[in-house]
Amino acid sequence: MREERENIIEKPTDMEVALYYIRLLRSPSITGEALEKEKEIYAREAAKALTKISNPFAIQLLKRELDKLNRR
Predict the structure, then answer these.
(1) Residue 1 lies in a domain
(2) How many domains does the chain have?
(3) Residue 28: which residues within 8 A CB-CB, separation 6 or more?
(4) Angle at CA 27, nearest 5°, toward 69 and 30?
(5) Among 57, 55, 61, 51, residue whose Cα is nearest residue 21
């Protein structure tokens, strides 16, 4: 029974991970003074995620978004 439940919940794809972080970086949930701090946290976590994904398209997409953020 437990095995069946574990098989239902699948690991997200690399592209899903990249798009998740891109969404957070583009539309953070906090506004005002905490906005920059929140973006820093998301950028740091996205950089960590880059080391764990292998899809070259997902890596390129997430790297581009991080580069845009660093240029600001």
Answers:
(1) no
(2) 1
(3) 35, 38, 39, 42
(4) 105
(5) 61
